[in-house]
Amino acid sequence: MGSDPLLVKAARGDPVSRPPAWMMRQAGRYMAVYRKLAEKYPSFRERSETTDLIVEISLQPWEAFHPDGVIIFSDILTPLPAFGVPFDIEDVRGPVIHSPLRTEEHLKALHPIDLEKLQFVGESLRILRQEVGDRAAVLGFVGAPWTIATYIVEGGTTRTYTTIKSMCHTAPHVLRALLSHLTEAIAEYIVFQVESGAHCVQIFDSWGGQLPPDMWERWSKPYIDQIVSIVKKKCPKTPLVLYINGNGGFLERMKGTGVDVIGLDWTVDMADGRKRLGNDISIQGNVDPAYLFSSLPALTDEIHRKTVVIVVEEQKQTSRIPEHHKHTHEMTPIVAPPAATDLPLAVCPHE
Ligand SMILES: Cc1c2[nH]c(c1CCC(=O)O)Cc1[nH]c(c(CCC(=O)O)c1C)Cc1[nH]c(c(CCC(=O)O)c1C)Cc1[nH]c(c(C)c1CCC(=O)O)C2
């Protein structure tokens, strides 16, 4: 076997010469080449469900600045139609599920995941793996059952999570059945991504932080635990990463899922996060994306301030990032192993 990519080593806690770096939403609207392609193919679903386009878009940042991770251009909702939930992405509203699932009757529409319908994902991962080899980690991703359920139950993006949160009390059996269904589908989908070429898979429980921690333990964690246990049996070597938006109240609980890497957001002090999590797990994230709007020295200082870091860039509002701001140095280091206090903290020497 050749050498594993830096990011994979760091995710496993092996020693690395420097922290690897990649950005979330690193493919997308801040890049002129992407905007041009999006003009030609205006539908997000077409861009994210056509092998050639997925590969081309995923490789745009790789070609521009050689990050240590190449994340597949896709979405957490992409697998939905493959288990019976149609959806659209609208320009202003974002994700829309026209028939939200709220009753026992609605559960009948769900069926086991049909991976044949997701061949564009498998095929794209295979090609990405060929293109980058082991020079970077090919990153797959999925949504956690709770986070995906928020879209399926609410019918789209929500600020309040009123319907799904009241279901916890008024129709717990329906919600449990939905979450169990999603658990099986997502576990299978992760294994499929790994078998297709993903080095590492990130689980986004982006909206898990909308639950009080004790409710997260009841309505999100058990399903993530199950996913981790199924995937670890089939793909014991593949590092799994877990991220929650606003995860300050959740760190120890996240570690309890058995994932290999915890994505910290910038509301948690890095040293506090490390203290709370201990030295036997890797950490990534933690740099406020607002630093992308600062000067290069300020960004570099912030990264270096983080000592043993694994930093993921959450670059959500990418369209607002001026093109000239986008160059190598704006990458943030993402993964450093727990034992790497003596690491040189320089970030991403690629030019
Ligand atoms: C707008 C939106 C979509 N899908 C979703 C939204 C957010 C809506 C809300 O706030 O409720 C749902 C979603 N999609 C993704 C997440 C998890 C990450 C997070 O917390 O932001 C979530 C919560 C991963 C993703 N979704 C996407 C990626 C891209 C892969 C990469 O990082 O390059 C990821 C990790 C891509 C995506 N996904 C979507 C678009 C339009 C795009 C392309 C962005 C662009 O044009 O620049 C549709």
From TrEMBL:
Q: What is its EC number?
A: 4.1.1.37
Question: What are the subcellular locations of this protein?
Answer: Plastid, Chloroplast
Asked if Lyase is a keyword of the record, the answer is: yes
Could you give one GO CC term from the UniProt record?
chloroplast
Enumerate the spans annotated as Uroporphyrinogen decarboxylase (URO-D) domain.
20-29, 139-155
User: What pathway does this protein act in?
Assistant: Porphyrin-containing compound metabolism; protoporphyrin-IX biosynthesis; coproporphyrinogen-III from 5-aminolevulinate: step 4/4
**GO:BP terms for this protein?**
chlorophyll biosynthetic process
- Alphabetically ordered keywords of this record: Chlorophyll biosynthesis, Decarboxylase, Lyase, Porphyrin biosynthesis
Stored InterPro entries? UROD/MetE-like_sf, Uroporphyrinogen_deCO2ase_HemE, Uroporphyrinogen_deCOase
Per the record's keyword annotation, is Lyase included, yes or no? yes
Give the catalysed reaction(s), semicolon-separated.
uroporphyrinogen III + 4 H(+) = coproporphyrinogen III + 4 CO2
Q: How does it assemble?
A: Homodimer.
Family, similarity comment: Belongs to the uroporphyrinogen decarboxylase family.
The protein here is known as Uroporphyrinogen decarboxylase
